[in-house]
Automatic annotation (TrEMBL):
Pfam families to which the protein is assigned, alphabetical: Lipocalin_2
Transmembrane segments: 47-67
Record GO biological process: brain development; lipid metabolic process; lipid transport; response to reactive oxygen species; tissue regeneration
Hydrolase found in the keyword field: no
Keyword Protein transport in record: no
Organism: Eublepharis macularius
Signal peptide stretch: 1-18
Listed SUPFAM superfamilies: Lipocalins
Gene that produces this protein: APOD
Stored PROSITE patterns: LIPOCALIN
Protein name: Apolipoprotein D
Entry's Gene Ontology cellular component terms: cytoplasm; extracellular region
Keywords: Disulfide bond, Glycoprotein, Lipid-binding, Membrane, Pyrrolidone carboxylic acid, Secreted, Signal, Transmembrane, Transmembrane helix, Transport
Length: 241
């Protein structure tokens, strides 16, 4: 539930897609670990009038042009993968502070010291506070709300940072609660292609390289590419974060 971005916000405004993911939600960088859940179009969506269908097709050149301009993004044809999540997930053990060690993609998170803090709210949902150190040395902070959507799979959460943007999925694929967490999210565009988001989190600013590689191998086993994952600098971060 920790720290997607400017590019997606741009698409949402320019193309009217109304998309948004989970670790995003930053006012400036809009990053967060949640993305539009992958799903098949509803029956109503499948019965779009010809004019609407034509409008969607006319968006394709624009979207494909955006893909070419964002070489760091991990766009793929087809629907989002659906990896299994952590079994018997205990959200109470998951609460607290997490540091972002590596993330995918890197385009939306070029700042340092990215971290997230989760706490329980009185309404049964969870408070999400994401922080980052901007390039000018200021600390950027954004608050959101996370919630579980299926009691049978408590590791499948959704997060929402702004009332005008839809909630996005936050899938805890693997965690030991005390050291690491592997989080995945994905957004589907026009049911034709998708973009992956992933975060390797740690309870401390550093995580053993072997653990990082192991978590990457889990993503790879579900055909989620890790070549574009980039580390987050957690050194010399302000004490007041």
């Amino acid at each position: 539930m920790a720290a997607l971005g400017v590019f997606l916000i741009s698409l949402s405004v320019s193309a009217g897609l109304g998309l948004a993911p989970p670790f995003l939600g930053w006012p400036h960088s809009h990053r967060s670990l949640w993305a539009q859940p992958s799903s098949f179009p509803s029956r109503k969506a499948l019965l779009l009038p010809p004019a609407t269908m034509l409008g969607n097709l006319m968006l394709l050149p624009f979207l494909l042009g955006c893909l070419r301009m964002t070489s760091g993004q991990t766009f793929h044809m087809g629907k989002c993968p659906d990896p299994p999540v952590q079994e018997e997930f205990d959200v109470a053990k998951y609460l607290g502070k997490w540091y972002v060690i590596e993330k995918l993609p890197s385009n939306f998170e070029k700042s340092d010291c990215v971290q997230a803090n989760y706490s329980r709210k009185e309404n049964g949902k969870f408070k999400v506070v994401n922080k980052e150190l901007l390039l000018d040395g200021t600390i950027n902070e954004v608050e959101g709300e996370a919630f579980q959507v299926d009691p049978n799979e408590p590791a499948r959460l959704q997060v929402k940072f702004n009332w005008f943007m839809p909630a996005a999925p936050y899938l805890v694929i693997s965690t030991d609660y005390k050291n690491y967490s592997l989080v995945y999210s994905c957004m589907t565009f026009l049911w034709l292609f998708h973009v992956d988001y992933a975060w390797i989190l740690s309870r401390t600013p550093q995580l053993h390289p072997e653990t990082v590689e192991h978590l990457k191998s889990i993503l790879q086993s579900y055909e989620i590419g890790t070549e574009q994952m980039r580390p987050t600098d957690q050194l010399n971060c302000p004490a007041n974060m």
